[in-house]
Amino acid sequence: MKAVLMSAIVAAAVLSAGMAQASPDLAKSAGCAKCHDMDKKKKGAPGFKETAAQYKGKADAEATILKSINNPKGDHPEMKAKPEEVQAVVKWILSL
Fold first, then answer.
1. Per-residue pLDDT of the chain (96 residues; tens, 9 = 90+)
2. What does the alpha-carbon distance between residue 67 and residue 8 come to, in Å, rounded to a whole number?
3. Could you name the CATH architecture of 23-94?
4. What φ, ψ does residue 70 adopt, rounded to 5°?
5. Counting beta carbons within 10 angstroms of the beta carbon of residue 76, is it exposed (0 to 12), middle (13 to 18) or buried (19 or more)?
6. How far apart are CA 90 and CA 84, in angstroms?
7. Residue 90: its H or E element
8. Nearest to 26, CA basis, from 73, 95, 76
9. Quick one: 80 exposed, middle or buried, by C-beta within 10 A (0-12, 13-18, 19+)?
């Protein structure tokens, strides 16, 4: 039983590490990079690092950003990416 549990923990760690490394590519394929850059404003949209700094230490950061992105009446353009892709990109941004 311990071996199965350890295998699951190792697999989860490997998958999450892979997701973190894939996130810049995921941000590009999800369409985020059309308006956002890593370090600077692009088309008036904040850079990923600027967003991470703005929300650093805020417990509700992920939920707040997702609400802003998914609000059809907000300033953020509609996303064509899957919700789980958008959430993965937001988690990556907050890890910067």
1. 555 444 445 444 444 544 445 589 999 999 999 999 999 999 889 999 999 999 999 999 999 999 999 886 878 888 889 999 999 999 999 999
2. 32
3. Orthogonal Bundle (1.10)
4. -90, 0
5. middle
6. 10
7. helix 83-94
8. 95
9. exposed
